């Protein structure tokens, strides 16, 4: 740890030493504007969640806010825990960038959500082109950007306060954002944000799902200081969540377990409860980050970044000998990142050369009384990369290379008291090339990215029951790194009143890691658990999205999205598990500039159809039956109501699952045991000041 | 000017590279500590072994008195024990021989749980916190006519059970300072069965429920019968074991003693003479040596 401190000190001192000589080297410019790379203009075109969708989804988690984007599906555990899937890949095959920081979280199991508060974000974007050079390992499926946006230049204190309510869970919450561009200290700005929400049990169309509540409490403080050609941005965030685990999946013996799967819903239901009881999981994620960007000439800049993250995960179960308040799993993942980038940018070329250091350590806190699910491990990665983007006429061209070296030293102990673990080292080359042609009517974009991912320690060493559901995972310590090559293409045609978009991808993943049931049971005293074994083989994922939107009248827009995705083992051609069935989404949007005292009125009627999963391998499922196809309808409205010049209200309301359909989704891990969420009427009021 | 201008980024790059160098990637550079062996430390989160001890006997009023045990008895045993435990790979070892019962007899059952260290941990269930949310139930499953696949029609009536838990849980009733918890506060670590039917084989499904919501009493404050737990109880269980049971004969009256001996002989694949000699060995065991009470 000692040299970490020295490193940090050197890092923090470096800008000061360098800026100390500022007077003698100042370049006289009329104006210096430092911009980060604008995702919308990047060759890897980001898809952004619209403001309207963000408004009506206030209070929902990240995955549910992203699912409006093409290529995104949601992997759920029940209806309260969810994570995004991009082009068939999720968890550690996605990179989450939170305000420019690569999130180091513990989402190694399906029942773990990424620790991100989407309500505090201004911009939610995804990159489907993996852009593996810039974002490094794990970006096999894509990148999720969660960004608070720049602090307002307003010299007065301003911000927003929001209250929201979700009918299905009787959930409620509030968030507050205040900010100011200080007039006292030139170039200094700050922002404080806080969010607190609680949801009780969710309700399917027919019954209540016990102990499925959630709560989130998060806050963030940001400071930016801009002096001439230097900008320092710092933030600290603290995200704490608590998620109940539905316990009705537990059974006594194999016959009951199979009967319960066949029955497909709880034998016994419990009345609604707001309180979360064991079993549940708690996670706290803290991030402290400082980024310094120094534009030392008109075209050159350097950017340095230090990030510290601490992710404390605790899982609580029903216990006998000790209190339920003693966790059964208690682990802390701490991480340090050091990033340095030298960049060049002019009208035609953007080039960057960077180095990155990424260290993390997982430590199991003693005193749980239960064998840790993961080993203690140290992970160290260092990387060099360069990428270049060239703008020639209507063409945008990009190429990049990256090399990573990594070690992972793990030491664990299993439930028999036997020690395990080893020292592993990895290295890999990542590369990307991309081209984009933009004309008046056509946009063509193609990218090829080659990236990699080190197996999660859970995939290597798991040997235990997953929290909350009777599935017993067995890892495989001999698995090697995944390497993926993703070719992503987008063709957009813009007609007078219509827009057509084709998005297609092929992703070849060498050594793809996934878990499948062995159709054997581990007989535990608390009942049987179905054994899932991690395996690895080459896989191919491919799919297309077709998007059409037409403006029927200036106020009325009609949008259709169709998603088809396949995943298969290359050698056997067997379908991969957990790949979405066909999806179709239609929506009609009606916009009114003014109606009485209301402004910016937006109405949406939406329909989603999800097909039955037919091409699946029964050996890879617990049940030979997949959920039936289903239709969901929803309506939403949002409007702005100005009170005076400084104060406005933004009022949004929506009804999800309008007809209270009882349904199951193939991508829901709990589909064997419970249905998805029923109707929910949601409302939120935002006061902007 | 130009030179100075480029000096800083070059310095920056050099420091960066230096930092990379500091961040050694030597494979054996750092080793994490091995996590604690938590099972050894606390040792009582999951049961490592559970034993079921059936004791044949009779009643003095409602108090059970166990028949004397004799090591020389091979077939007509007063005490039978069956246990379930994990092997080294963490798999539950299932017993390969059944419990054999006789219609008309009374059998006390005492269940004992052990942790990984071999320590008895029954007291965990009878604590002030755990007693209201724990209860053993005894269900008759998959009952057949003996040695056939024909369903046994009176499956529900094969067994009756009386809860006889004590306070403290490890004390023998009738000893000084040991009291009964009573029928209003059943745990099921101790109790006795009446065997009402003969010539059947079934699985005695022993379930220990562990309630998350509420307590084991119904809305009127009464406990649920030994063989009829509320469905709401079955969501979380600490134990769910199926013990193979055979009721292979019935207690003899005066005129069917020979049949009784023959059925013992058939059950254990021995001669009638050997069966009778075993029975005689059992019944001639000094009655006073039976010192098991419940």
UniProtKB/TrEMBL annotation, chain A:
It is found in: Cell outer membrane. It holds the Pfam family Plug. It comes from the Bacteria. PROSITE patterns: TONB_DEPENDENT_REC_3. Gene3D superfamilies: TonB-dependent receptor, beta-barrel domain, TonB-dependent receptor, plug domain. The keyword Transport applies. One of its GO terms (molecular function) is siderophore uptake transmembrane transporter activity. Keywords: Cell outer membrane, Membrane, Receptor, Signal, Transmembrane, Transmembrane beta strand, Transport. Residues 58-143 form the TonB-dependent receptor plug domain. One of its GO terms (biological process) is siderophore transmembrane transport. Residues 1-20 form the signal peptide. One of its GO terms (cellular component) is cell outer membrane. The keyword Membrane applies. InterPro entries: Beta-barrel_TonB_sf, Plug_dom, Plug_dom_sf, TonB-dep_rcpt-like. Its main location: membrane. It is a multi-pass membrane protein. Belongs to the TonB-dependent receptor family. PANTHER family: TONB-DEPENDENT OUTER MEMBRANE RECEPTOR, TONB-DEPENDENT RECEPTOR NMB0964-RELATED. This is Iron complex outermembrane receptor protein. It comes from Winogradskyella epiphytica. The lineage of its organism: Bacteria, Pseudomonadati, Bacteroidota, Flavobacteriia, Flavobacteriales.
UniProtKB/TrEMBL annotation, chain B:
Keywords: Signal. Residues 1-26 form the signal peptide. The keyword Signal applies. This is Uncharacterized protein.
């Amino acid at each position: 740890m000692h040299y970490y401190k020295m490193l940090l000190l050197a890092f923090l001192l470096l800008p000061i030493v360098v800026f100390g000589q500022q007077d003698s080297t100042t370049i006289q410019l009329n104006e210096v504007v430092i911009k980060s790379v604008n995702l919308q203009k990047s060759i890897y075109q980001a898809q952004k969640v619209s403001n309207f969708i963000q408004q009506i989804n206030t209070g929902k988690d990240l995955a549910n806010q992203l699912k409006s984007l093409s290529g995104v599906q949601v992997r759920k555990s029940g209806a309260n825990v969810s994570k995004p899937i991009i082009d068939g890949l999720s968890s550690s095959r996605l990179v989450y960038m939170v305000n420019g920081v690569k999130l180091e979280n513990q989402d190694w199991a399906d029942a773990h959500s990424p620790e991100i508060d989407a309500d505090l974000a201004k911009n939610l974007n995804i990159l489907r082109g993996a852009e593996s050079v810039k974002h490094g390992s794990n970006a096999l499926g894509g990148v999720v950007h969660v960004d608070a946006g720049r602090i307002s230049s307003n010299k007065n204190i301003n911000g927003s306060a929001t209250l929201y309510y979700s009918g299905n869970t009787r959930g409620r919450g509030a968030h507050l954002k205040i900010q100011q561009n200080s007039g006292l200290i030139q170039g200094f700005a700050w922002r404080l944000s806080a969010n607190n929400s609680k949801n009780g049990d969710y309700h399917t169309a027919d019954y209540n799902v016990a102990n499925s509540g959630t709560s989130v409490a998060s806050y963030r403080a940001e400071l930016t200081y801009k002096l001439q050609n230097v900008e320092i941005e710092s933030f600290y965030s603290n995200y704490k969540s608590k998620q109940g685990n539905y316990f009705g999946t537990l059974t006594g013996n194999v016959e009951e377990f199979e009967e319960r799967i066949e029955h497909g819903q709880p034998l016994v239901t419990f009345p609604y409860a707001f309180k979360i009881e064991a079993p549940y999981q708690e996670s706290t994620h803290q991030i402290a980050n400082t980024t310094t960007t120094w534009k030392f000439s008109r075209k050159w800049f350097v950017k340095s970044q230090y990030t510290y993250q601490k992710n404390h995960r605790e899982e609580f179960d029903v216990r006998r000998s000790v209190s339920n308040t003693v966790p059964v799993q208690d682990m802390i993942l701490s991480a340090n990142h050091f990033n340095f980038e030298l960049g060049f940018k002019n009208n035609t070329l953007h080039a960057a050369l960077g180095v990155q250091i990424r260290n993390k350590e997982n430590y199991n806190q003693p005193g749980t009384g239960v064998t840790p699910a993961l080993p203690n491990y140290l992970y160290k990665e260092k990387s060099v990369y360069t990428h270049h983007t060239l703008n020639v006429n209507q063409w945008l061209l990009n190429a990049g290379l990256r090399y990573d070296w990594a070690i992972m030293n793990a030491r664990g102990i299993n439930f028999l008291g036997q020690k395990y673990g080893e020292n592993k080292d990895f290295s890999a080359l990542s590369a990307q090339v991309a081209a984009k042609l933009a004309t008046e009517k056509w946009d063509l974009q193609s990218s090829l990215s080659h990236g990699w991912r080190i197996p999660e320690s859970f995939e290597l060493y798991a040997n235990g029951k997953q929290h909350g559901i009777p599935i017993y995972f067995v890892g495989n310590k001999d698995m090697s790194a995944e390497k993926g090559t993703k070719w992503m293409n987008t063709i957009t045609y813009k007609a007078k009143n219509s827009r057509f978009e084709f998005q297609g991808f092929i992703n070849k993943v060498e050594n793809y890691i996934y878990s499948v049931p062995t159709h054997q049971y581990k007989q535990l005293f608390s009942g049987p658990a179905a054994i899932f074994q991690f395996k690895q083989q080459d896989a191919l994922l491919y799919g297309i999205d077709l998007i059409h939107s037409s403006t029927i009248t200036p106020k009325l827009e009609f949008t259709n999205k169709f998603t088809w995705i396949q995943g298969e083992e290359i050698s056997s051609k067997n379908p991969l598990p957990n790949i979405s069935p066909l999806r179709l989404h239609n929506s009609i949007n009606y916009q009114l500039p003014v109606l009485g005292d209301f402004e910016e009125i937006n109405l949406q009627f939406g329909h989603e159809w999800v097909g039955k999963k037919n091409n699946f391998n029964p050996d890879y499922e617990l049940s030979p039956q997949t959920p039936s196809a289903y239709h969901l309808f929803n309506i939403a409205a949002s409007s702005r109501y100005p009170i005076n010049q400084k104060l406005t209200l933004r009022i949004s309301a929506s009804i999800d699952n309008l007809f209270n359909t009882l349904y199951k989704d193939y991508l829901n891990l709990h589909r064997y045991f419970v249905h998805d969420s029923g109707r929910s009427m949601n409302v939120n009021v935002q006061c902007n000041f | 000017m130009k030179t100075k201008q480029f000096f800083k980024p070059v310095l920056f790059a050099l420091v960066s590279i230096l930092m990379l160098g500091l961040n050694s990637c030597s494979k054996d550079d750092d080793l994490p500590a091995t996590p604690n062996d938590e099972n050894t430390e606390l040792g009582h989160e999951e049961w490592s072994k559970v034993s079921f001890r059936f004791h044949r006997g009779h009643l003095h009023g409602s108090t059970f008195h166990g028949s004397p045990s004799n090591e020389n008895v091979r077939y007509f045993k007063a005490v039978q024990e069956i246990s379930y435990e994990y092997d080294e790979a963490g798999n539950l070892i299932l017993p390969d021989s059944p419990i054999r019962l006789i219609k008309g007899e009374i059998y006390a059952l005492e269940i004992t749980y052990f942790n990984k260290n071999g320590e008895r941990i029954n007291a965990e269930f009878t604590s002030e916190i755990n007693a209201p949310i724990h209860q053993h139930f005894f269900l008759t499953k998959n009952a057949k006519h003996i040695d056939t696949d024909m369903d046994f029609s009176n499956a529900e009536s094969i067994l009756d059970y009386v809860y006889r838990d004590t306070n403290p849980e490890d004390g023998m009733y009738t000893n000084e300072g040991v009291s009964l918890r009573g029928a209003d506060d059943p745990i099921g670590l101790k109790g006795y069965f009446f065997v009402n039917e003969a010539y059947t084989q079934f699985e005695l499904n022993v379930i220990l429920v562990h309630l998350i919501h509420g307590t084991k009493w119904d809305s009127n404050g009464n406990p649920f019968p030994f063989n009829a737990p509320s469905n709401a109880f079955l969501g979380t269980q600490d134990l769910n074991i199926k013990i193979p049971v055979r009721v292979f004969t019935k207690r003899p009256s005066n005129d069917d003693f020979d049949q009784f001996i023959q059925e013992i002989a058939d059950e254990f694949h021995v001669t009638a003479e050997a069966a009778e000699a075993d029975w005689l060995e059992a019944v001639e065991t000094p009655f006073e040596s039976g010192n098991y009470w419940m």
